[in-house]
Design a protein that fits this description.
two-stranded antiparallel sheet; extended; Arc Repressor Mutant, subunit A; 24 helices; 52% helix; 3 domains; 469 residues; alpha+beta
Length: 469
């Protein structure tokens, strides 16, 4: 069979997303801080974009001076001492600056000291101690294998492979590091960490040492009575040992953690005014964009290639302004719809949160469900009851006995409240919590569902919450 070339026509449909459409979708998903960075970047790159100066004052035409009058005014009011000082070796301003504090001319960031890291803090102490060069080399390898909580993550075999030293030398340096500040850092187990701290503090009671070295798991699981019988002590005496152990730090490196707090800037504010709620978009710091008239006028006499570049940038600027307006409009409509559906929450709090899905809001504002999903991503709203992510208002439903429904977040809030108010010596079991929910809300909820909600909120089971003292 011979090969041949043949032309043919084929008709097909294909979804093509233009760069402008991709930009509009991206703007919907950005958080407020990311949006500010994007707009500032566009202001730097696109000459057709300009920021509106709303505070610019237009001078009164009646006060405009002629050229000769302006010169006379300059001669009469000019500070010639300062003017001549700029051309002398030392100006008047320079003399005044010499009297200022040195940090006055520094930026705000330059005045702040960086937070010390755990490795840097230990390294600094090692250099101030009488470590030899060989011991410092071993210590650097040990410090490089200590995690954020202060525990050594490398085995002795791995350390000997990384540094030319015997296990005895490494163990000796490690022992000295464990006695640096914070005490217990570089330990391999929680038991070793606590025992080092007890050694430094002089806690040498044999019962306390045995509790730490051999019975931490029993203490974690609240097996107090067998321990009291084993050591032949009363429960009050055991409690005194536990109180002493709680003064120790099982994670000595946690205070030097490099994790920074995550700050949230609300995209929307919802205030109650009278009997209604007012929605205000947070536009603080958001530049007000306009087209740069200078470059628009320059297009008239530009060459063909320059005109093509100008037109592309002008279309990009116009589309960005349109996309930003559409984003703010969509955000306002979505929040307005959420306030309508979840009015009971804004009135009374989390326990009144109703079940809600994206489709309901999408149908209410007559937009696609994917658009609602994007606009509620990484967005936060400030309410009379705190700051919440917009996704928080969308939750599943649980059926009530009367045929109505209640939101899962409301049930979680009630479970959390019940556990917070419980008797710590007789904590509520999951089955009992389900019975109380059945009595209060008349909601059909199984014990395993209560356990799932409790675990999702990071709350331990009743056996681990029980306190004997």
């Amino acid at each position: 069979m011979g090969l041949e070339l043949r032309q043919q026509l084929k008709l097909s449909q294909q979804l093509v997303m233009t760069p402008q459409l991709q930009q509009a979708i991206k703007l919907l998903q950005l958080s407020r801080l990311e949006l500010l960075e994007t707009v500032q970047q566009e202001l730097l790159e696109n000459p057709f974009l300009d920021e509106t100066e709303t505070d610019t004052e237009v001078p009164d035409k009646t006060e405009v001076l002629t050229e000769s009058q302006a010169e006379e005014e300059l001669v009469r009011n000019a500070d010639w001492e300062n003017y001549l000082g700029e051309f002398s070796s030392t100006s008047k301003q320079a003399l005044s600056r010499d009297m200022e504090m040195p940090e006055e001319g520094m930026s705000f960031e330059a005045r702040l000291a960086s937070k010390p890291s755990l490795e840097g803090h230990l390294n600094w102490q090692m250099r101030l101690s009488n470590f030899s060069e060989h011991e410092l080399a071993i210590g650097d390898v040990i410090l490089g294998n200590i995690d954020a909580n202060g525990y050594l993550q490398a085995t002795m075999e791995e350390l000997t492979a990384m540094v030319q030293a015997s296990e005895e030398e490494i163990e000796s340096v490690l022992r000295r590091i464990q006695h640096l500040d914070p005490v217990g850092v570089g330990a391999r187990t929680p038991q070793e960490c606590l025992l080092v701290q007890m050694e430094v503090l002089g806690y040498d009671d044999p019962i306390l040492v045995s509790l730490v070295s051999d019975h931490l798991e029993d203490l974690e699981k609240n097996r107090y009575k067998p321990l009291a019988r084993k050591f032949k002590i009363t429960m009050d005496e055991l409690k005194s040992y536990l109180d002493l152990m709680q003064t120790l730090d099982p994670m000595p490196g946690a205070n030097f953690s490099s994790t920074e707090p995550h700050y949230v800037s609300p995209d929307v504010f919802v205030y109650k005014y009278g009997e209604d709620f007012v929605i205000i978009l947070n536009e603080d710091g958001m530049p007000r964009l306009q087209m740069n008239t200078f470059y628009m006028d320059s297009m008239k006499g530009a060459a063909d290639k320059e005109k093509e570049y100008f037109q592309e940038k002008m279309r990009s600027a116009a589309w960005l302004m349109k996309s930003l307006y559409q984003r703010q409009r969509t955000l306002y409509k979505v929040v307005e719809s959420i306030v309508g559906f979840q009015r009971a929450f804004f009135e009374e709090g989390v326990t009144k949160l109703k079940p809600l899905i994206l489709k309901e809001v999408a149908e209410d504002i007559e937009m696609h469900e994917s658009t609602v999903s994007r606009i509620t991503t990484n967005k936060y709203v400030s309410t009379p009851h705190g700051i919440f992510e917009l996704k928080f208002f969308f939750n599943s439903a649980l059926d009530l006995n009367d045929g109505s429904q209640v939101g899962s977040e409301s049930v979680k809030a009630l479970i959390k409240q019940m556990i917070a108010d419980e008797d710590t010596k007789k904590p509520l079991s999951d089955e009992r919590i389900g019975e109380i929910l059945q009595e209060k809300l008349e909601v059909n909820i199984a014990r395993r569902t209560v356990a799932k909600y409790r675990s999702a909120m990071g709350i331990a089971s009743s056996s681990k919450r029980k306190q004997y003292f």
